[in-house]
């Protein structure tokens, strides 16, 4: 059975072939993981944040498709030099538009990238035990989507342990 190729924009294909800011950041201030168990995409975002809460540097690692890599790459470029509050306001729809659009079945890649960014920003403030007024108390849609993989991993780990213990 053959599959038809996805109708990706030239921008997505270019970012997939030549991603910006790809790789682990050893001196990151904070990092966060996002994943989707339905498609298997995983992203880790790394942020280096200044004392003035400006994103000095952003990188990512990805285990995913062209759309996953392209949206992550675009987002790391976009947030560099932004204050955390301004980076928080970026929507997945805006991100999808900036990469030239995505096939409907790939919208979740934009959601995951934003989810990873927002999880990193939330972790930054949690580490400092301070939350600014603009940071919502409840998790956003994107953060909840980013947590799916983590929740699935916990369930599978628990099941594997039960199996190993012979229960």
Summarize the structure.
This protein is of the alpha+beta class and 167 residues long. It contains 6 helices and 3 strands, in the order H-E-E-E-H-H-H-H-H.
Average pLDDT score: 88
Largest sheet: 3 strands, antiparallel
User: SS-based structural class?
Assistant: alpha+beta
Shape: globular
Helix tally equals: 6
Order of helices and strands: HEEEHHHHH
Number of structurally distinct domains? 1
Portion of residues in beta strands equals 5-15%
* DSSP strand tally: 3
Strand order of the largest sheet: 1-2-3
Specify the helix fraction band. 40-55%
Attribute tags:
6 helices; alpha+beta; 167 residues; Sufe protein. Chain: A; 14% strand
Task: Describe this entry's structure for a reader.
There is one protein chain. This protein has 167 residues and is α+β, with helices and mostly antiparallel strands. The protein has a single domain (10-131, 140-164), classed as Sufe protein. Chain: A. Helices cover 47% and strands 14% of the residues. The protein has helices spanning 10-17, 66-79, 84-88, 92-98, 107-127, 141-164, and strands at residues 30-35, 42-49, 55-63. Strands 1-2-3 form a three-stranded antiparallel β-sheet. Helix 2 packs across helix 5 (107-127). The protein is globular and about 50 Å long.
């Amino acid at each position: 059975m053959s599959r038809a190729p996805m109708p990706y924009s030239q921008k997505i294909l270019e970012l997939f072939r030549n991603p910006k800011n790809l790789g682990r950041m050893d001196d990151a201030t904070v990092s966060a993981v996002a994943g989707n168990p339905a498609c298997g995409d995983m992203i880790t975002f790394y942020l280096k944040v200044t004392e003035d809460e400006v994103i000095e540097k952003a990188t990512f690692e990805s285990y995913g498709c062209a759309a996953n890599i392209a949206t992550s790459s675009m987002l790391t470029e976009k947030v560099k030099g932004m204050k955390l509050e301004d980076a928080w306001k970026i929507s997945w729809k805006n991100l999808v538009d900036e990469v030239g659009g995505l096939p409907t079945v790939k919208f979740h890649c934009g959601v995951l990238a934003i989810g990873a960014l927002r999880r990193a920003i939330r972790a930054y403030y949690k580490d400092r035990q301070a939350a600014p007024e603009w940071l919502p108390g409840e998790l956003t849609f994107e953060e909840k989507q980013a947590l799916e993989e983590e929740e699935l991993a916990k369930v599978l780990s628990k099941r594997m342990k039960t199996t190993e213990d012979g229960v």
